[in-house]
Amino acid sequence: MKKILIFLLTALCVIALCACNFSGLGSIDPDNSGSNGNDDSGKSGAVTEYKRAGTYEVGKDIEAAEYLLICTGSISGYLEVTLTKNASIGSADFLYNEAFSGRRYVIVHSGEFLKFSSSKLYKLDATPELKKESDKGYPVGQYKVGRDIAAAEYLIVDPSENSFNYVEQLTSPNASPLSSEFLFNETFTYRHYVKTTNGQYISFSHGKLYEVAEAPEVIKLPSNQTDGLYKPGQYKVGTDLSAGNHGFYVPEGSYVYYEITTLPLCSVMSDAFLKNGNLTKATMVALTDGQYIFFTSGMLILNPQVE
To answer: In whole angstroms, what is the distance from residue 113 CA to residue 57 CA?
Structure first.
């Protein structure tokens, strides 16, 4: 599938960077196993214990369990899970790795080794209190549905219009892109919806996660000849724009990829995936309430005046 291929290319780049320049992600002290710290950012003001960056043997230094890693400072964190302490990337003993921003969950089992940098490791019953930011958005990271956020529909908004924003929906934080636990992923610009259920994990790379009712308003470009110009992203028909016959503007010498679905993230083989395509010229599309329209470039023109 198109999204998995993009993800695999990204993962290869991350692995290469981590292998060649691991020190840039922060200090790792492999002999610091069992080293603890405390902070006062826990729930209800309680002091919260954490593990500092290092390598830990599961079943000896830490319990087999699910943990939360939270980045220290603005630098990205890094984690890896292996069967032997010094397993090399690509070997059978190297199970999983991830470069991450903000926060990331990880599940480990007895006999495995967990190595992480530029972050703190917390037990789930002693994590710092999760708070929305001043604009009511959740910052970049990974969130567990039913624990951090309620099962609902959310909107990821990136005002910087980063051209390689990324969202993924999993049933396990360690999920491989080719496993059944890896549900959906997408690269996008500006904004994208995600609909969640309890037990899932939602990760995103840029912008903020909002409850739909608290999300920023859609930014429409002004136009005297249409009902509005919408820039690339994902929009919900009946919420962000009206149902009707709308038109795609395609820049000369370029193309626009688009999807029409009834769920914000879904497989191209599912009933919720209605239509997609690459457009090389201006094209009209008919949209009805409840659908999602996603596109990667160009502009969507609402109710254009067709001569």
So the answer is: 5
- Backbone Cα Rg of the chain: 21
Residue 256 exposure: Cα atoms within 13 Å on the Cβ side: 24
Rounded Cα distance between 88 and 106, Å, is: 19
C-alpha neighbours within 13 Å on the C-beta side of residue 263: 17
The parent domain of residue 268 ranges over 220-301
Of 186, 214, 242, which residue constitutes the final position of a domain? 214
pLDDT single digits (tens) 163-198:
689 999 999 999 999 999 999 999 999 999 999 999
Helix (H, G, I), strand (E, B) or coil at 205: coil
CA–CA distance, 133 with 246 (Å, rounded to integer): 35
pLDDT at 6: 43
Which two tokens mark 277? Answer: 């395509």
One domain for residues 226 and 147: no
Q: Is the pLDDT of residue 299 over 50?
A: yes
How many Å is the maximal CA-CA distance in the chain?
A: 74
**Whether 55 and 162 share a structural domain:** no
| For range 42-58, the mean pLDDT | 75
Please give the C-alpha separations between residue 253 and each of 33, 116, 280, 296, in angstroms, as whole numbers: 56, 45, 8, 15
> What one-letter code names the amino acid at 147?
R
pLDDT mean across residues, the chain: 86
pLDDT of residue 150: 97
Burial code (b: 16+ CB inside 10 Å, e: under 16) for 172-189 equals bbbbebeeeebbbbbbbb
pLDDT at 28: 36
- The two structure tokens encoding residue 251: 């820049």
